[in-house]
User: Fold this.
Amino acid sequence: MRIISSMCLLLLQLSPSCCVSRDHKVVRLFARRPFQYSLPQYYPPIQEMNSLVSRLRHKGLYRDEHLDFKEMMAEQRKARGKGKPKKGKLLQTLLNASSVVYSWVEQCDM
Assistant:
């Protein structure tokens, strides 16, 4: 930093007198030390907050009604048999469904 400020002062001494006012302003700006400040934190720590809330919810100290509703709906859907089939079980479920429909059609024809 000292090298840059000394170079700026040297340039100030060597600059012609007609451009001194404009150049001097730039040299003064670069000769100053930069401001020491920390960048502001614009965004809240979302990941940390989510992990804390999920831990509190797991221990029963926090109640998230929306997540409770989503879990309840998923349980009801699974109870009705609407969930995704397990990997490799799709063909088996399709065959079972077709046999159920076929047996239902046979009962209706009788």
Observations:
- Residues 90-109 form the longest helix (20 residues).
- The mean pLDDT is 77.
